[in-house]
Every structure is written in structure tokens, then in C-alpha cells.
Amino acid sequence: MDLLEEYRRATMFFESGDPGGAARLLEPIVAAEPENASVRQLLARAYFASAQLVRAEEQLRALLEIDPSDHYAHHVLGRTLERQGRPEEALGSLRIAAAMRPDNDDYRAALRRVEARTGGRPR
């Protein structure tokens, strides 16, 4: 299997609106290259976009083990936890992402939304 070609195909599937198809292509690539953050991030996004939220959470936590300073992984983990109905758990990740990128409107909006829902209290 040509991993780079499969990654390109998966990207094409994702960008064309088929995150489930992208995930199926990415799973064996992540298995072959578990430390490849780019592939793992796209897999996490594909899972998130296809509402496979437990799987998205697993990939995002693995990404943060590889690189705890990945602001985007913190943001998407927070959004994933929020979508799972776990807003108190989401606060920590959303706060980290917003602190790392205070100029990012999406990060600040997600944080404000979850803070309003929880009264700003983390779990």
C-alpha cells in the first residue's frame, strides 16, 4: 500500500464531504504510522465530522500525548466532549486552546458557549 497516495485519497474524500470514507482509508495508515500527527489529526476530524465522537476523542487524546502543545487538538477535543454532552470536561481543553491562540475567534466562541452552559465550572 502506498501510504502517501492513500492519505491523498482520504483527504479528497474528506474535502468532498465523505468523512466516513476518509476514516476508512486513514485507519490503516494510522496503524502503520501511529506517530504521524497529520494523519491522526485528519482521522480525528473525519471521526468528528461523521459523529463518531468516541473515536474522535481517542485520536485527539493520542495526538495530545504526541504533542501537548497542539492548540487545534485541544480545541477539537473540547468540541468533541461538548458534542458528547460533557461540557464541564470540555472546558479545560477549550480554555487551553483559547489561551494558546487568543486571536482565534472560533476558539473564543466555543469557550464562551461552553462557559455559559456550565457557569464556567470545570468538572
TrEMBL record:
Task: Identify the InterPro entries for this entry.
Answer: TPR-like_helical_dom_sf, TPR_rpt
The UniProt entry, under SMART domains, shows: TPR
The residues bearing each TPR repeat, given as ranges, are 37-70
Under Pfam families, the record lists:
TPR_19
- Cite the SUPFAM superfamilies for this sequence: TPR-like
Entry keyword annotation includes Hydrolase: no
On the tree of life, the source organism's domain of life is: Bacteria
**Keywords associated with the record:** TPR repeat
Protein known as: Tetratricopeptide repeat-containing protein
Q: Origin organism of this chain? A: Micromonospora pattaloongensis
